[in-house]
Amino acid sequence: MSDEIKRVSYFERQFLRAKEFVDEQKYHTRLHREHNKRLHTTGVVISGFEVTPNTLDPNDKTKVLVLGGMALDCEGREIFLFETCPLPMPGNVNMVDIYVYYSEEPAEPSNDPGVAGNHTRIVEKPCFAVSPRDKVPAGAIYIAQVKLKDGMVEGSGSITDKRTVVVSTIGNNSIDEVMLRNNSVSTRTIRDNAVDSNKLRSDAVNDTNRAVGTDHIKNNAVTSDKLRSDGANDANRAVGTNHIRNNAVTAAKLQSDTSIDTNRAVGTDHIKNNSVTYEKLRHDSSVDVYRAVGTDHIRDGAVTYEKVDWNIKNLLLGGYIAVNSDGTILSNSYHNVTSVYRLRKGEYQINWTKPVSPFVHFSYPYGDYRVNILGTSSVTTVIVSNSAGVNVDGSFCIMAAPL
Prior knowledge:
The chain is mostly beta strands. Helix content is 6%, strand content 30%.
């Protein structure tokens, strides 16, 4: 075949022969097949061409059925089979390979005087090769291997599917580390909301099996629009703990903005409840810039109590005590608190489950009461007084950090 790409040039009063029309067809056919070879996967089945037992006549086990389908051979030629085709099996071997390949045959001979017998059409059709093992017909596509017993197919277990089928969509859990080149994923290549939790390979135990590592993500590529979010359903949010390798999320990977809150990468609806664990965030005891998350990466109000796992929740110890005018404790809501006692008017004792350093979160009414805290270990004494310095019973919230 010539290296030149040449098409017919038409003009008025041109004398057209068969060669002009043949060259016109060759031009379009060549470019179409070159397109298939260079921009699509060739030597594969696009769909169909599955080999099955003879369900059209179950009593005839000397045949298999090839279901309709489409394939592309190594030359970029399309192979179409529009209906199920029975295929006889040989009787002298115990194992055969089945191939499909492209073929042409002339059709519709002319009856016109002087040109009778010249064919007016060319039919493109699939042909099948039933070959002994390891004998591959040139340009053919391997679709099945069939085990035979005295020339008969014993059932579906005798047929091994050998097709290479092109899949146009991404299956759940199909993207793992091996499938991604370093830095191959960027903002431009991901549709908004396209990455959901099913698309990323996860592993609850083995960190190296998780899909996403630092080298897969371009700096600033993970924006808010790229992660699937859901304001109500936690399971619909994109990223869970088991998808992210330990220390994979660095500061550079998350889009940040020092002034515009909506430009920051991570919002509440992107994060599954309890998925932010200590191991998931890159940390450094001495170099601040190596730490994963800065203020500018997180939208205001995005990190809620539900977003962190229990180990981190335990870092924020709190207790709320509501007291009646006679000093009775009406209600309390707290964790990591063993007990709360009213010692006397305006004076309370909190017993913590572990040593803490407590501080006042708020008192009620705001600004009217003063709250003093004594003790910084396992027992805290709280004294509530009014603006005149007189002890009073009131409501307050105590927060504490672990020692």
